[in-house]
Amino acid sequence: MALTEFEAVPAFEHAPRTPGLVVMKFGGTSVGDPEKLKRVAQRLVAARDAGNKVVAVVSAMGHTTDELVALAHQVSPTPQERELDMLLSVGERISCALVAMAIVDLGQLAISLTGSQAGIVTDSSHTKAKIVEVRAHRIHEALGRDEIVLVAGFQGVSADSLDVTTLGRGGSDTTAVALAAALGADACEIYTDVRGVFSADPRLVANARKLDRVSFEEMLEMASSGAGVMMARSVEIARTHNVRLNVRSSFEDDEGTWITEEDDPMLEKALISAVVHQREETVYRARGASAATLFGALASANVNVDTILQSTEEVVFSAPPEDKTAASGALESLGATWECRDDLGKVSVIGAGMKSHPGVAAKTFAILEAAGIAPAVVSTSPIKIACHIPSDQVDAAVRALHDAFELA
């Protein structure tokens, strides 16, 4: 895992802990229709009635963002990124305003704020902006008036141009965690359509187990290896600023999964916590360019590099399929000799306990060999073993590893 490829940590100093302040983030499925919007409003009012100061971050309703992207491409085959950000920021603003209206109807005070009004200041990289500062004056003022504050996720304002910017995939999570750090919140609650973080994707492994607690390090590895419940950059911000995360269901009252520091006395260091996967990840092999030059060009092209392996003759790295055009352009600009494979996915075994238990790698490879699966690329960290394997063998590998490590 290339930690340097995660979002730069926001420049602000995290605020002292503010008892009773909670940041609650709701994803697109949680606000997918008017009835769900009303349920979100009810949950926020209940949190306020319990004596908390409440800041909520909401995503766009359902598939609104995808629909706006499709609309943009119907109008222009190559929409300008600045204007695309202006367009895509609308979805979260709609959700914010509607939830605020519903809260007022329930008898509580509420105010909706755009990302810029909430003080989310970013760099100038459109569609993949990074947060550099949070100026939360208006939020503090609204909390002082006992208002529930709704902040449009996924967006901010460029410090240089004052243009609207969007934060890319997982941007609403990033907004919520950055606000929790800047405000000194007791916790950042991430509400989604699943009950928490599982030992494997429950859609693939029926007996996958919900994890009560995982460490920041484990969640960071899981997020970067395909666990879609949270994006890696938001977990990195939480780890850096020690923001306690709670991933839980929007539709149930289950406690969910807590994501905390590794020295949390409640955290059990399981040998293996989870088996996570990505069905598609492009793997590149490049020659003729130094690692510094190569990864400098990829960073300038906003390519999210994951696995990195280097020998004296070549550099091997992986990146999401959606970054292939940008990665190819960067490689061509360097005049490097390169090739890539689009037929690979990735399966990763993750657990803090493997630091002190030898033999996990041997068992992993033995299980894959017994299933007739030969990894094309293998990479490791102290708490992860990641194998790039043919995409059509990913499901079988996940089930075999999950069973063999007795994670059910």
Q: Summed up, what is this model?
A:
This protein has 408 residues and is an alpha/beta fold. It has two domains: 18-193, Carbamate kinase, CATH 3.40.1160.10; 275-404, VC0802-like (2-Layer Sandwich).
Q: What would you say this structure looks like, in words?
A:
This protein is α/β, with parallel strands linked by helices and 408 residues long. The protein has two domains: 18-193, Carbamate kinase (3-Layer(aba) Sandwich), CATH 3.40.1160; 275-404, VC0802-like. The chain has helices spanning 34-49, 64-75, 81-105, 137-144, 171-183, 216-224, 232-241, 291-300, 324-334, 360-370, 394-404; strands at residues 21-26, 53-58, 110-113, 120-122, 131-134, 148-152, 155-158, 164-166, 187-192, 213-215, 245-249, 257-260, 274-278, 282-287, 308-310, 315-319, 337-341, 344-350, 377-381, 384-390. Strand 11 and strand 12 form a beta hairpin. Helix 8 packs across helix 9 (324-334). The radius of gyration is 21 Å and the shape is globular. The two termini are 26 Å apart. Mean pLDDT is 91; it is low at 1-10.
What are the salient characteristics of this protein?
408 residues, 2 domains, 33% helix, four-stranded mixed sheet, globular, alpha/beta, disordered N terminus, Carbamate kinase, eight-stranded mixed sheet, 11 helices, 24% strand, VC0802-like
